[in-house]
Amino acid sequence: MNNPLEAYAEEIIRCNKCGFCQATCPVYDVRRDEASAPRGLLRLIRALYDGQLSPPSDGYAQRIYRCSLCGVCAPTCPSGVEVDGILQAARDDLAARGLLPTALQDLGRTVQASHHLLEDAAQAPLAWTEELPHPPEGLGSRAELVYFVGCVASAFPAAHSIPRAFVQVLERAGQRYTLLAGEEWCCGYPLLVNGQRGEARELMAHNLETVRSLGAEGVVFTCPSCYHLWAHIYPQELGGLGFEVIHATELLADLLANEELAMGPLPWQVTYHDPCDLGRRSGIYDVPRQVLAAIPGVTLVEMTENRANAFCCGGGGNLDAFDPALSQAVAGRRLAQAQATDAQVLATACGRCKRALAAAAHRNGVPMEVLDIVELVERATRKGA
Known about the structure:
The structure is a single chain. The protein is an alpha/beta fold. The chain has three domains: 96 residues, Fumarate Reductase Iron-sulfur Protein, Chain B, domain 2 (Orthogonal Bundle), CATH 1.10.1060; 142 residues, no CATH class; 123 residues, AF0625-like (Rossmann fold). Helices cover 50% and strands 7% of the residues. It is built from 20 helices and eight strands. The strands form two sheets. The chain has a four-stranded parallel beta sheet with strand order 2-1-3-4. A four-stranded parallel beta sheet has the order 6-5-7-8, sandwiched between helices. Helix 11 crosses helix 20, helix 15 packs across helix 16 and helix 18 packs across helix 19. The radius of gyration is 21 Å and the shape is globular.
């Protein structure tokens, strides 16, 4: 069996233990435990790779999976170590050895069996459409544009408002689209970050074949994790896609630039949270801010930690499934940073981030509304209609 860590053999030994990654790590910020910081994790991984820690134990696996894979450690590393890539390879190795923690084994089984993050949601993939003024447009019909909703937005009621808002904006702009509905399977993210790459590939192949069968020229995503996988991992695993992959904020920016959306004023002070998969992993920082700036009345105030240095919401890397308390603590830290801006609204461009940060606001009694950018645009276009 090939060790996935072999691809990072030189990277692993290049860490000079400076601690820059530790200073930015959201998990370390909560736990204050050297073995939870990227530097400490790299030392454990090197010990395993060098044969000093063999075979890997459940304790080792617990450390490796107690990470949101937010990737903030990579841009802060002066040695250029791809820390997030090494951590993913370590997970691939652990999954191959049968050392997935129980909670993540359960998550993996659910996704493989139901093709969805939650088994119940797989039975009602269009539950989010119930409060729409009219049914959404094309379901499984041929169209130039496919809207891939994603598991989070279709599974969790707290995120249903995102696809509802997005399809209403598309229709107000006269943009024709189709939905995959029951043929939309999980993009593969939960399995991939578990380390179950082969199992994730089966989901990817189904989704790609389904989109191709509709003759689509583009697929749009409100979920950054789905977007990142389709834009970067699908081509690696399956070859060229043959169509364009875009995030919802990119499409909104184009519609606004072409004056296809009329918006009324939203007189709010807004701060923006960069989703890890949209920002650090996909390099999309400016476009969401351009969309916010185009909304009349909105004033953008940045958090101290923004763009490539943005603090994680705590929901990535399956951390919310593996260690919910830690995930919630990280979200609380990010919420506090948003509060420091005195903004009325915390905006993001990710359903997972919205759920994590809105739940943190509720737990802490913080009267700050947490909205996805598409929800802000929908409210503005409602006023501009």
